[in-house]
């Protein structure tokens, strides 16, 4: 049923440029995608056009050139760095006599190879089925269709209609199961919200080093590799931040230019972790010449999932690949940390990243000196000790406990509500 092929095949790549300047940068990224899928590149066919051809996407002459390249190289598949219509795929397959897969199909195939968890596999299957639903006609051209007239009547339902019905049923079943997953994730988020535990979500372009940074910060040991979409299934780990306490760090799937909309829709439950985060760590490969374009591509996806309003810190990663770059924090005009330059693989600048996170998340901190009489000292000191809020303490000549506390405003308000004694009565003015 699925538009996918086994890893290890050999392919002819096709990249057409539709601009005057010549954007060949996308070709190198496409070659990385192909390599990530485990496919060997035999030949690359490039060209330029003003607009896509309605029949072949490329011109008829270029289509013939692709067919000859397939024949001479004995390739198993043709991979296009573009989104093709179902009709264009069928026409090209008929001409080339082999499988033709577009950029969306290739990315879906990589995701299918990477999925490990039950949720991840469901999300990938949903995206594949939605993509496949427009291409069903190709697989059934050899089967009987409805016919009219005596002796020419076919079955009451064509094979194509049967498959479309089965496809719709399967999509509905997956959506029901993913809805359960979404509810479970929502329960976890509500529990963290009730406990006032901030959530930090790693986002960024694929292969920017998010998982390496995640491992460096949390020692989680998640899979990290120098390839596109090495991470697919989200991972959550607890970290401790100065002046903030416990926080949850989430590693998420990487973004890419022209990320298929079906994929974004299928991964809605996973990407919700990003949308509901208290702050985003936008990891950028600072050594990539196209890092500004990559930042813009990530912002587009964040806007699509309605996460563009979430506060963020830019993490300029891989400074070990840039000569003369040292770890540092960059602040805005108001002294708020905006970006941190680090090397996740070497561990440089990680302490600065923690400092920047603490500073951004502890903006709503309160600090008080309290004078607590002996009758309340045991209970009050125990409460503040549990929240790690005690900065220093001493006793005056009357036996009162003088204690300097620093904690989040939310924790202070919660303690005030919970205690029968109003804490503000103990504040030293």
How many domains in all?
Answer: 3
Spans where pLDDT lies below 50 across 5 or more residues: 1-7, 138-150
Q: DSSP strand (E) fraction?
A: 15-25%
Give the overall form: elongated
How confident is the prediction overall: mean pLDDT? 77
Annotated CATH topology of the largest domain: Rossmann fold
* Alpha carbon gyration radius: 28 Å
Extended strand count: 14
**Number of discrete helical segments:** 13
Helix content: 40-55%
State the order of secondary-structure elements, H for helix, E for strand: EHEHEHEHHHEHEEHHEHEEEHEHEEH
Q: Order of strands side by side in the largest beta sheet?
A: 6-7-5-8-9-11-10
Instruction: State the secondary-structure class.
Output: alpha/beta
CATH C-level class of the largest domain: Alpha Beta
CATH superfamily of the largest domain: P-loop containing nucleotide triphosphate hydrolases
* Spatial gap, N to C terminus: 73 Å
CATH architecture of the largest domain: 3-Layer(aba) Sandwich
User: How would you sum up the major sheet?
Assistant: 7 strands, mixed
Subunit structure: Monomer. Associates with the 50S ribosomal subunit.
Protein name: GTPase HflX
Family: Belongs to the TRAFAC class OBG-HflX-like GTPase superfamily. HflX GTPase family.
Cofactor: Mg(2+)
What would your notes on this structure say?
With 429 residues, the chain is of the alpha/beta class. The chain has three domains: 10-101, GTPase HflX, N-terminal domain (Rossmann fold, 3-Layer(aba) Sandwich), CATH 3.40.50.11060; 196-362, P-loop containing nucleotide triphosphate hydrolases (Rossmann fold); 365-426, Alpha-Beta Plaits, CATH 3.30.70. It is built from 13 helices and 14 strands. The strands form three sheets. A seven-stranded mixed sheet has the order 6-7-5-8-9-11-10, with helices on both faces. Strands 2-1-3-4 form a four-stranded parallel sheet, sandwiched between helices. Strand 3 (77-80), helix 3 and strand 4 (99-101) form a beta-alpha-beta unit. Helix 1 runs parallel beside helix 4 (103-114). The longest helix has 36 residues, at 159-194. It is elongated and about 95 Å long. The N and C termini lie far apart (73 Å). The relative contact order is 0.08. The model is unreliable at 1-7 and 138-150 (pLDDT under 50). Residues 198-365 form the Hflx-type G domain. Keywords: Cytoplasm, GTP-binding, Magnesium, Metal-binding, Nucleotide-binding. GTP binds at residues 204-211, 229-233, 251-254, 317-320.
